[in-house]
TrEMBL record, chain A:
Residues 95-298 form the ABC transmembrane type-1 domain. It holds the Pfam family BPD_transp_1. Its main location: membrane. It is a multi-pass membrane protein. The gene is oppB. Belongs to the binding-protein-dependent transport system permease family. GO terms for cellular component: plasma membrane. This is Oligopeptide ABC transporter permease OppB.
TrEMBL record, chain C:
PANTHER family: PERIPLASMIC BINDING COMPONENT OF ABC TRANSPORTER, PERIPLASMIC OLIGOPEPTIDE-BINDING PROTEIN-RELATED. One of its GO terms (molecular function) is peptide transmembrane transporter activity. This is Peptide ABC transporter substrate-binding protein. It is found in: Periplasm. It comes from the Bacteria. It comes from Paracoccus amoyensis. Its main location: periplasm. GO terms for cellular component: ATP-binding cassette (ABC) transporter complex; outer membrane-bounded periplasmic space. The lineage of its organism: Bacteria, Pseudomonadati, Pseudomonadota, Alphaproteobacteria, Rhodobacterales. The keyword Coiled coil does not apply.
Amino acid sequence: MFAYILRRLAVAIPTLLLLIIFSFILMHLAPGGPFSQERALPPQVLANLNAKYGLDEPLWRQIWNYVYGIVVHFDFGPSFVYPDRTVNDLIASGFPVTLTYGTLAFVAAIMVGVSLGVVAAIWHNTWLDYLAVGISIGAQVLPNFVMAPILVLIFTLWYRMLPGGGWSFNDPSFWVMPIIALATSYMASIARITRSSMLEVLGSNHIRTARAKGIPEHRVILRHALKPAMLPVISYLGPVFVSMITGSVVIDMYFSTGGIGKAFVDSALNRDYAVMMGITILVGTLTILFNLVVDILYAWIDPKIRY
Amino acid sequence: MQSLASTMVEHEVKGRSPWADARKRFVRNKAAMFGLCILIFVVLFAIFGNWIAVWSNEELDFNVMGQVATMGQPSIENGHYFGTDDLGRDLFSRTVQGTQISLMVGVVGAAIAVIAGTLYGATAGYIGGRTDQLMMRAVDILMSIPYMFVLILLLVMFGRSIAMLFLGIGLISWLDMSRIVRGQTLSLKNREFIEAARATGVSTWKIIIRHIVPNLLGVVAVYATLLVPLMILTESFISFLGLGVQEPLTSWGALISEGSKTMAYGTLWQLAFPLFFFVITLFGFFFVGDGLRDALDPKER
Amino acid sequence: MTKLFTTTALLAALALPAFAPALAAQPGEGETLAENQDLKFWILDAFKSLDPQLTSSRTDSDMIRQLFEGLLNEDSTGAMVPGVAETWDVSEDGLTYTFHLRDSNWSNGEPVTANDFVYAWRRAVNPETASEYAWFMELMNLVNASEIVKGEKAPEELGVTAVDDKTLEVKLTKPTPYFLKTLSHSTTYPVPQAVIEAEGDAWTQPGKMVGNGAYVLQSHDLGVEAVAVKNDQYWDAEHTIMDEVKFITVNDQNIGLTRYLAGEIDWMNTLPAGRLPQLQQEYPDEAISAPWSCSYAYIFNLSDKGPEELKDARVRQALAYAIDRDIIVDRVLQGGQRPAFNWVHWATEGYTIPEEDWGQWTQAERVEKAKELLAEAGYGPDNPLNLSIQYNTSEDHKKLAIAVQQFWKAIGVNVTLNNYEWKVHIDRLNNQDFEVARYAWCGDYNEASTYLDYFRSGGYNQGKWTNADYDKLLADSATAENPNDLYRQAEEILIDEMALAPVYHYAMAQMIKPDIRGVPLENVMSAWYAKDMYRVAE
């Protein structure tokens, strides 16, 4: 197991390098640069800007300097578009926000989704089941960029219950709408997966045996059925996590949360090379780590899997 | 997506050709048949919708322009069956045209993923050994790249075009496909008919194309059905970011995103009609996908 | 509401003689101040930089104007009033300006001196600073500005010197009629040398930043909100009523409007297109439109890379005629904008826009004429004209491009639309990689030359239109008794040749809470100072 983790981590490094080089080249191939603007800059100013940010060097040298800065100094460089800030500053201000509402939404999606799925499976083919399936399919196909403005209309304008945007680590009322908007569609997929896998487990031989032995139904479900039924759900968590970071673009735009989702899209559009690279690397690293955690969790629950 | 992969690996489709049985099971599945009817309806709408449209998708109705909330409502009389958009263009013909684009993105994107994934997975699984190890390790590596980010980059870098959209969306999802297909191939590889083919000296490539791939069609079909809605959802997100197709062309994502911006101003139909088609289509694909899986799964619950 | 604002503004303008000390707006008779004096202002995007010399965005300037003060300020009508400079003299040849500074302090208690301006202005032109607005100092015609920007001379040679702590002397290369009007721009604001040298790039962070404006930065949460509170060290602090200004970022205009209606925002100065009429019915006290000095046009690529067809003036005229500006203004934008038949914004100070014949025709007549012109130029059903319109990503530009596509279709021109993001749009414009492109110009100062300079040979002029007479008129205007006459003659040439198809003159459709007073709706530069505003009790 330990060796397996090490091996996975060892693969992570070339993966990240690949990602860095790929995005770096892509970014530099793009038309328009960070300093393209209406009044073309005087050549001297442009030359100074390029020198200041090291853009006058050959591409391979830039990549090397960039990677060197990260590895040796943990320095992701200065932002081209926010001259007062470094990429480290921007990530330090945005990432905790994204992480907070992302984690909460993640937990909420799992808890509500699993409960809904289990309820639907236990009361299979009753009105409860249909309701749960109806809700989850409905929630899954409603894009969050439709959901977000609806939430603001309802909770901010009509009922004046929640602030329509902004962020504070001390005031949970700012968190509610981002979490709902982000969690809903994943909650729905988790519910559907839980339901079908629970149905299958409940129909399996070992549950029939348990029931035949006279074990009370709630114990059968909690002790014997839930754990194996969670396997497909767990393998779904990796992709969910990644899509949530993508979904945070919508959250940041509609709720002014100041997270890294909006920062990424802005940096790509503004050709803010360093910020874009920094966030790509951050998200890439998180993806790798998270997939690893999911695999370990999977192995821990399913004793049949050996690495 | 992974869940799908693992669920399907668990219910392996057995090699005997149970097509007739499967069809019977599928036809008996009410939800699946309902889903199929929806999809047929949507496809007919996309193909023949323009026959009943009075306006084109780009004409501005100057009578409506500027007073859309009062004059642009859905109406049979002036030919705007679904009302008009914020600029006074006919929403019916725009929805028809958006449906064409979104379905195309969904189907072509899924097709790219399926073709690439199947060939890659079948090759890796059939050849086995070192090659298999190497090819699958590459998939592992590629899996940990945040694809939506790469897609955004691609669209920003190379400009927006339908071709880029197809390619980008297809690229995102062939990885899962290749894993599933590889698993299936491993179990097929030692069957008598494959061994027989090998013994008579058929080339590796031919075996993969002629014998392995056709036997994977069941799994591939199920997976493809469930992939299409994912493609459509991805496209809608891209359109929301403003990186979708060029005006005057449109897509469901673009229409929904525009409609959601104006929903507080008394023009709810601008959101409602495109969203309706979007939602029923996704429902349809989900139902048909589930139905196909149940039908092709001999362990029917 | 509009009326009330107009009268107060007029009274204020009448009451203030040209060189009267700038006084903050005071509540009038019968107005009681509200308990809470705070202003919540909507901004679309996060601040890029709060460094006066490094910023290049309008949003940033709105904040910087509260945190710093230049030599001059603008009053509610846009007229220049004393800021840090109490009085000033101009030499007879118009080349030397001497400013006498008032006693005022930085927010850390240090006095503001003439040297702070010298430092700031040198910093702006110094190539090492790499300021994107270094060109502004060239526009001001400061001695040696261009040479320093090009790296040919040292920043110390810039034509600005501190005679003593309270006297600043500025030398210009040529008489510049608009020079004083440039002095309220953020690039010219003083900055504290000691603080910048001690803190480096981080000096603009709350807690570290030191300014000389009426407010100090209290907090800044990037992309969420920034708060500025009253600065007790400000020289006119006793007349400053508003205690706090909060800039709230909302990236979506429609959500911004929802939050305004929910009471979370007090002032939203750019409403989504098409929303004003409905809001004016529902909130007659709050929905308002005010002219804003920017012009919208489609420019034609007349360079060698441009299409041959556009080099025929008749084609350009036909295209300009065919655009139905009333539909664009009244049906699409609906925010109080005006149809444009010329380039310079109609509300520009001291300028009367030229009366163009075609501006008086009906649209039917224009379309008729356009068809004739196209036929003369040899285009018709058998030989249709094919063009592409390039625009940058934005809901409004998209709507206009779609409408123009339809207008041109009506005279037999086939148009394809090309949408690029801003950076690419700008790159293609600068490299003449376009046929027809959407463009807008916002005045840098309130005078016609800021618009006309765009089309000078060697100006930004991305379509590469050139005309020797035009250039001469602009050159002569610098020393002319009444430059506005020359400006108008130049603009007549520009429109006769149809170097561009003007579309509309901007206005800001906005929502302002009814208890907020002192919003400078008469100022076409839309420069506002929170120190001049206050809230009345309802």
